Amino acid sequence: MGAVQLESVAAQHAHAKLNVDSLPQGPSLFDGNDTARIDGSKSDEYERFEKGLMQYGCAHYRRRCRIRAPCCNEIFDCRHCHNESKNSIKIDTARRHELPRHELQQVICSLCGTEQEVRQTCISCGVCMGKYFCEVCKLFDDDVSKEQYHCHVCGICRIGGRENFFHCSKCGCCYSKVLKNSHACVEGAMHHDCPICFEYLFESRNDVSVLPCGHTIHEKCLKEMKEHCQFACPLCSKSVCDMSKAWERLDAELATLSNSFDDKMVRILCNDCGAVSEVQFHLIAHKCHNCKSYNTRQI
């Protein structure tokens, strides 16, 4: 079948963007923990607390502290920086490792350099090392515009605002509320690798799309599939969006072609609805009698 132009997958189905901060956590925002104890009337104390806001950090987080990795005793800006350095393909296989995030015990203030146990406020200079702070996950982040929140069921911190997500116990993940009554549940849908790039989706920091079949995939990988005219789920082969317009165009195209196998019948299985049909053999495509889809295979 030739290339078929489709509308945006996002326009056809409300894919959930599941932004993950990759760290389990019990959160504290600007109005919690140490921050709540800062009296706004004490300007000097407040200025110390806010000093350096959004001026420190790395490509992953804006924060005013660094971490000492408990696994190799080296200092990094964050656990992602550690993993990119220590789990790279450039590193000898025997030496590769990831930071055990729950075992993190020491942080270093970026302003005064004081090393201390994990906490939100520096014991030496009094600066807030992260406006968003999770004591469980040891997560610090000054950029609270992400609307971070901790899902105790997922066991990790996510972004996007708690009010915008719900946790699906069967799929095992937080999904956008637009999918609450419409998504197809798949057991542990988020607890596997992306079928295209093989990154573990549950802790991925990249946007994830939930397909109509319930399977999950990176949004950027889904876009690349479309660019290569691949419109079927890599896991179950169901269409990733509404293909009805494409099937209508294929109907018109096939109507102009002669078929020299009018007497030959074949059995087909529809990947979209699961129906089995007996149809006339055609060199180009076979149409499901039940749902009119051409996403079929001969059996």
Automatic annotation (TrEMBL):
GO terms for cellular component: nucleus. Coiled coil: none annotated. Residues 129-193 form the CTCHY-type domain. GO terms for biological process: protein ubiquitination; ubiquitin-dependent protein catabolic process. It comes from Aegilops tauschii subsp. strangulata (Goatgrass). Gene3D superfamilies: 2.20.28.10, Zinc/RING finger domain, C3HC4 (zinc finger) (3.30.40.10). This is RING finger and CHY zinc finger domain-containing protein 1. The keyword Zinc applies. InterPro entries: RCHY1_zinc-ribbon, Znf_CHY, Znf_CHY_sf, Znf_CTCHY, Znf_CTCHY_sf, Znf_RING, Znf_RING/FYVE/PHD. One of its GO terms (molecular function) is zinc ion binding. Residues 194-237 form the RING-type domain. Keywords: Metal-binding, Zinc, Zinc-finger. SUPFAM superfamilies: CHY zinc finger-like (SSF161219), RING/U-box (SSF57850), Zinc hairpin stack (SSF161245). Residues 51-127 form the CHY-type domain.
